[in-house]
């Protein structure tokens, strides 16, 4: 039993921000040496974030570097505005990406957000089909599993699927396994991560916090097994140490959620920075880089042990990427 195991560039976001000369090529070199078979690259800001700029030569350089090692690519953006989505679909096509991840940025009631997001995506799926890129809509701290499935089923197009994130359902107080049950037939991609809960008493507000893989309370093995058994073969590892998010306003605990128990267990202070940071401004850039690297390595080792217990190994699944001249 084998999978293609990619890694998200957010795993080293402090390296991109603080480490000298650390860009997408250095990232690819590093993660290939670690044994990953592909990357997810965040282009989630006006200057295409971890790509470093919008010039075509940057896109082609990444595509050619990945092709040389037969590594896969997905790219990330956010928002569903049709003009923006068409622009990023063209970028994904140029870079040879398998898919384009996005999530809604609409506000309002849940019903209003669902309608606006659905209307947007109906306008871009034909272009996604034209360029051969699948749009994956993530459960990104906004929709529950059933709500996300409603959007995708309403649009009803083979180029629109779901990206299931192991922990993001917690921001809407939904059990991760319950969320997966609701979206499993529609899942195209996943983000593997680990979380803890921090009580309002200790964080000022009920908070979900990222920790190195294996240091949290998410059911990593059970989720991975369910996804593998459903046929998924490309997984993306995401080191979310030092990330935190608050619970979405107006959300109340969903079925099977009991705060302080299971995946929603609270971590108790004092907090070891190697495991959990809530205020990054207390640390220098160099310290954040060092702790992030340590968190990545420790978490990756933990996940490899999880795969071993599941009798799953890692190998490249789709070695068919072509180079592109600048």
How would you describe what is shown here?
The chain has 326 residues and is of the alpha/beta class. It has a domain at 2-193 and 217-238 and 302-314: Divalent-metal-dependent TIM barrel enzymes (TIM Barrel, Alpha-Beta Barrel), CATH 3.20.20. 37% of the residues lie in helices and 17% in strands. The protein has helices at 13-18, 24-34, 56-68, 82-95, 110-122, 125-131, 145-155, 176-183, 200-203, 220-229, 285-309, and strands at residues 2-8, 38-42, 72-76, 99-102, 134-138, 160-165, 187-192, 194-198, 207-211, 234-237, 244-246, 313-314. An 8-stranded parallel beta barrel has the order 1-2-3-4-5-6-7-10, surrounded by 6 helices. 46% of the residues are buried. Residues 319-326 have low confidence and may be disordered.
